[in-house]
Write the structure tokens for this entry.
Amino acid sequence: MGTATARKNSGATGWRNWAGNVTATPVRVVAPASVGELQEAVRRAAGDGLRVKAVGTGHSFTAAAATDGVLVRPQALAGIRSVDRTAGTVTVGAGTVLKDLNRALAAQGLSLTNMGDIMEQTVSGATSTGTHGTGRDSASIAAQIRGLELVTADGTLLSCSEKENPEVFAAARLGIGALGIVTSITFAVEPLFLLTAREEPMGFDRVTAEFDQHVAENEHFEFYWFPHTGNCNTKRNNRSQGPAAPPGAVSAWVEDELLSNGLFQAVNSLGRAVPATIPSIARIASRALSARTYTDIPYKVFTSPRRVRFVEMEYALPRERVVEALRELKAMVDRSGLRISFPVEVRTAPADDITLSTASGRETAYIAVHMYKGTPYQAYFTAAEQIFTAHGGRPHWGKVHTRDAEYLAGVYPRFGEFTALRDRLDPDRVFGNDYLRRVLGA
């Protein structure tokens, strides 16, 4: 069956990521139906002198998954494999889409503790690039991993946890695809709970002055600043005893589909065609926001549909530096001729112990900048990146940046630990590509 599957999918075909800013033309594409078939595909690629990369749903904005060799689509390695209610864990195939995992867990009365705001990614793609939400005490999706299985460069299946291959586990939870191909992940889960979401407009000066207070007082705090204005929208998510009080069907459609997707799409299209209109639109749109409060299960509060396509850069800063950096960003935009139609997003994360996590070893805050698909973004991102790196920022592994291994070794104290492990697990760079060469070195 493995040979038939590989043959069926052996023809070269182009690949493009979700944002359309990264393309690749692999020699062949394989979609293994089992872990054994994946091991066979890796061995064959190595034997043919080809590099091999796994790709999820393409939601990364970098070329982390791009390859000119063998492209592996792990979507058939999906679904819940087991639930251990005593241990509080669930084991899932690496190709499982977060949306499907969240719904399946909720049906069993379970939930992840925290998650990002997009759930179209595969679990392996999301964790391998460091997808995170916002949280005072609860960290990224990768930080919720309790075990994983990894196919290494010689086709070996390696089981990793704090007790089994712990040095690999420390790194492979967020491995950027450099250590092998993840086949399954065991996550910590907990009984399903409710969150009350409170969304409230707030001025830029107030939210930055009160930032530490908001983070301390809320389990999950984030805010969006609208460039060309002094206006922000804040979001506080905290656990609730209930009862559930989700947004009404009509108000949810108006907020999530009409305003956040349909109207936002139209406004961005207008801004791309006529950039001079953007500041006026931003002022009107940011003033039109109103407060709302609702209570629902976690994934319905944390996540939202994203149908408007964009390109994104995000940097993780020491939390104590984020307000200063954001004020510098605002001053830069205000004095420039840039026209920015997407809001800037600010989130937080506690320190974690993952080798190359953007929150590794330090309390962290994130600043994310976006530009509408098809709009020139280089000038904005370059200016923003200069500000972020001046504050010791770490770029998100799956989002646009220009940093290299020399810079990254200076902001990650355990960088050498990761690259030494890579040398041991993949000395011939079977899982290498141009992106990894830049960020990790040869």
In short: The radius of gyration is 21 Å. The CA atoms of residues 296 and 393 lie 34 Å apart. The longest strand covers residues 194-203.
